[in-house]
Specification:
Elements: H1 26-53, H2 60-70, H3 76-86, H4 100-112, H5 116-126, H6 149-159, E1 161-162, E2 173-177, E3 183-190, E4 199-205, E5 208-212, E6 221-226
Antiparallel strand pairs: 1-6, 2-3, 2-6, 3-4, 4-5
Helix pairs in contact: 2-3, 3-4
């Protein structure tokens, strides 16, 4: 007789239902994954847009090449682009501007010989109530009215041609409201080098005038205008 190697222990037969493997919740995992991806895209889009736009910033050398390309053009928009691009050059003291309003005023004066300060003052004198009443002024003030971006935006709205985002062209002026509530403006120009077919902006930002791929970064658009063209 074969001896039981376990001594007195004997095999006990299991009687009952067959054990079932746990079911995998296939759809639950995919739903969680899709939700995670969706949240990543929603919250990450502004950051990605910012990173893309900052990959290339126009330099003084690139500005010189673009100015040379556009210099012979008689189109007013190209002239405005040339004037705007000349303002980014850090080595030209005569080109330095210290605010968004100065950028717009200087570009129009350089490119088209148009005195926006004078034109705005004339329009405000005839329609003062149509301008933003934000500074408790009782009438036009030629010395400071054109230094205020909301006034410039209203002037362009009253005097220029509005257009949609799909119709943006070189030399156009665009106004935004920034997240901090301040009004901001820029002039549309071509991009540098391989980006020449793209629409970039020249604007005053922080400590100076910059040439950047940020046209689509600002969503709170006050208006897009084509004036003097």
């Amino acid at each position: 007789m074969r001896r039981n190697p376990y001594g007195s222990l004997t095999t006990i037969e299991y009687i009952g239902p067959r054990p079932q493997k746990p079911k995998k919740n296939f759809f639950g995992g995919w739903v969680i994954l899709l939700i995670a991806v969706g949240m990543g895209l929603f919250f990450g889009r502004p950051l990605l847009a910012s990173l893309r736009s900052e990959q290339v910033v126009g330099t003084d050398a690139a500005a010189d090449r673009m100015i040379e390309e556009l210099h012979a053009s008689t189109r007013p928009g190209d002239k405005l682009a040339v004037a705007a691009l000349s303002l980014i050059k850090k080595d030209d003291k005569n080109s330095q501007v210290n605010s968004t309003a100065e950028l717009i005023n200087s570009a129009y004066q350089k490119a088209l010989g148009m005195d926006i300060r004078e034109l705005l003052n004339q329009d405000m004198s005839s329609a003062f109530s149509q301008y933003p009443q934000l500074w408790y002024e009782r009438g036009p003030n030629k010395e400071i009215d054109a230094t205020r971006v909301p006034n410039l935006q209203r002037f362009f709205h009253r005097s220029g041609e509005d257009f949609s985002a799909s119709d943006v062209n070189v030399g156009d002026v665009i106004f935004w409201t920034l997240p901090d509530g301040n009004a901001h403006a820029a002039i549309i120009v071509p991009g540098p080098g391989l980006h020449a077919n793209e629409k970039w902006i020249v604007h005053h930002w922080q400590q100076g005038v910059v040439w950047e791929n940020k046209l689509k970064d600002y969503s709170m658009v006050l208006g897009r205008y084509r004036f003097g063209q």
